[in-house]
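Office hours follow-up: a student asked to see two folded examples consecutively, so here they are.
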Amino acid sequence: MTTWRKSKFILQSLGTLLGSLITAAGIVWFLAPNQIAAGGVSGIAIILNKLFGFPVGRSMLAMEIPLFIASTLALGWGFAARTFLGALTLPIFVDLLTPYLQPATSNLLLASLYGGVVTGAGIGLVFRSKGSTGGTDELAALLHKFVGLPLGQILLFIDGLVILGATLVFGVEKALYALITVFVAARVIDLVQEGIISAKAAFIISDHSEEIACNIMTRLDRGVTSLAGKGAYTGISRHVLLSVVSQSEVSRLKEVVYETDPQAFVIVTDVHEVLGEGFKKFN
């Protein structure tokens, strides 16, 4: 293994550990003490804690071990390697943190919102580090292999069953709060993986595309890509310019375009992550 690969592996492992720790904190601070079972193995463990008094972390670990063994046998060591660290450490962190972290709030709305934010941030960091927290991910992967249904549908079905169980145990109101947590966590996971909106992509259609491209490159010092385009109605061929700029440069970009061609057609759209010259480096 090269030095670069070793460094990358260490960083990914640290990211997985930190993400698991953050997820565990969200469960201990917000979800478990307020009996918000927002799907997944942690949701099942919260239900079991209510019914039988089992510690949440140990219940998660007890469910995780057979799932991990089954997924390793069925899906191979590659899947197991990505799953092992997060799946093992998350339940351990939950039980380690429980004696020291007091519930942050007893307000169900706040608990569901911030529980979603914190657990979503942790899981998003794990995913960004090329890891997994295991649990229902493993069960979904197994069912996908043997049943053939899409992973997203399987995960949605499993989480739905967990929330249905929470409805029977905790009542409808807490199940509704659990749905809020699921929604918020999903949005935060996407945000962590894709990044906060940091740039804008502009598509520019004009009869003066060469002049506009030259002005963007010289006045904004931004690159421009010229794409071949053709009007579906007119049949006229034109160049479509693509340029990615920072949010603070959008006004200047529009000024450059409309000074050159007031009739230009411009589409500006959000970009969550840009890798390359002038923006972030790939890691």
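And the second, which I mentioned at the end of office hours:
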Amino acid sequence: MIGAARTRRARVVLASVIVLLAVAILLSLGVGARPIAPLDVLQAFLAPDSGNADHTVVLSQRVPRTVIGILAGAALALAGTVMQGLTRNPLADPGIFGVNAGAAVAVLAAITFLGVASPAGFVWFAFAGAAVAAVVVAVIGSRGPDGGNPAKIALTGAAVTAGLTAVSLTILTTNRQAFDVYRYWSVGGLTARGLDAVVAVVAPIVLGIVLAGICARGLDLIALGEDTATGLGHNVARTRGIGILAIVLLCGGATAIAGPIVFLGLLVPHVLRALVGSDYRPLLLIGAPAGAVVLLFSDVLGRLIAPPGEVQAGLVVAFVGAPVLISLVLRRRQVAL
């Protein structure tokens, strides 16, 4: 009975999230400094007119940022869920694997040494930096007799992040041009990127989503303890390897196209556990669209806060998400991993 009730609840939550995602997409395409009616948005897709300014705004500006919001939000939510499962650490998010710090160093290197000055040009550098940092943390954290221990991985991630952050600050304090270009990218947002940036990382993100789904059953067993999972015949090392690869692809791709957006990968899994429980299959299934909903709504809210200017989505996620997570922490019933 309990299992059936959780399944029904998960289906209701999934349906609700999909409806919210449809609303978020519509708002993302229509809301902004230039409001565009839903019918005009639809017409821009069905009968585009190059002479119509509304159609141009929808197709050239808002479609790319909406697609980026969907991909980056889904990727970060899934990455956070897998990280928390692998490390059995409820505070795990993309930062624990040094992803954001690695991407930042790579972007700064591209600005300083190669003269790259546009967010679209940062894509592969950010992806490579994020991936390399995550791999370094995973390899070091998995070595030794206690390799793979959650605490060891967390400490390794903290050490790598600290070292890379020091490198970033050294560059920023000695290169004014790098600081001017980097500061906009570093807050995390969906603007100033085109569909060309999406094309560059869509395959890694989709592959990361597939690999995250493959990990679901293994994460449920690891939650019981690695010794228990091994005793039940599960290959923990295989799940860990697949999960780390999924994290690298998801975090690298999301950071490359949206910048180092923090907190989303921490927030979404905790909210969903409060709604559907700790089974990783519904958490991952619902987490992808839920992450997209959070990031798209944050982007829309950022356009409304200070018109005609905008507040970047990464800042809105942190400001709005913090009270939500605090309310979960203060609840009497703890949310178990």
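Two things to take away from it. The chain has a mean pLDDT of 86. The chain has one domain: 2-329.
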